[in-house]
Amino acid sequence: MKNLLMTTAFAIALTGPAFAAGSHSGGHDDDHADKHAEMMAVGKPGTAADVTRTIAVTMRETEDGDMIFEPDSFAFEQGETIRFEVTNKGELEHEFVIDNAEGNAKHKEMMAKMDMEHDDPNSVRLEGGQSGEVIWTFANAGTFEFACLIPGHYESGMYGPIEVSAKAEAETEAAEVVYTKGTVKKVDTKGGKVTIDHGPLVNLDMPAMTMVFRADETMIGKLSAGQSIEFVAEPVKGKLTVVELK
Ligand SMILES: [Cu+2]
């Protein structure tokens, strides 16, 4: 009995770290613990509810003997969940597999030895005329690859790059608007301009100074000389413009 218990404890101890190590390819939070086992460098299986874009993908042979995907490349932003609606418009069987280049190369080697039929969430295999789909979340930034790994097909042209760009940091910064303190020096209602003696403009990386800003009619109406304000300025059509006021 004691032995059995120890064995179980040992097994659990082993499973824990092994599981964690295998899943943390991107250093992500544990919000989908159950999906962690399926996390790959290229991302993880997505759910229909999270789909941000649907993309039609065609697989077919060409008259000059090539085999192609249309489109032949993809560009996504980190975090996007894509529904690939894949149609085999060819006569031969084809598959659509997403992975990184190394993963595809490894799989291709294995398939050259023995035709394996994948049924992983990152792939769909279709007979000529069939349609199917793959829903995938591109959780990590990087360069990945989609391919058909049926022997000979990759070499005939069935692969292309998937570029996943890192989530723009500006986006997160924009979420928390930083107001700058200032004093209105002059208001030019006709010209749509306001002169403000202001503190540092953090979002524009500008030091404190007195500067002329553009402002639309509504904004101008709220401003008068001598007034102490807190405002946000942004370039609008190349001109620094007061866009927020409190
Ligand atoms: Cu193919």
TrEMBL record:
This is Auracyanin-B. InterPro entries: BlueCu_1 (IPR000923), Cu-binding_ET (IPR050845), Cu_oxidase_CS (IPR033138), Cupredoxin (IPR008972), CusF_Ec (IPR021647), CusF_sf (IPR042230). Keywords: Copper, Metal-binding, Plasmid, Signal. It comes from the Bacteria. The keyword Metal-binding applies. CDD domains: Cupredoxin_like_2. GO terms for molecular function: copper ion binding; electron transfer activity. Residues 1-20 form the signal peptide. It holds the Pfam family CusF_Ec. Residues 61-164 form the Blue (type 1) copper domain. The lineage of its organism: Bacteria, Pseudomonadati, Pseudomonadota, Alphaproteobacteria, Rhodobacterales.
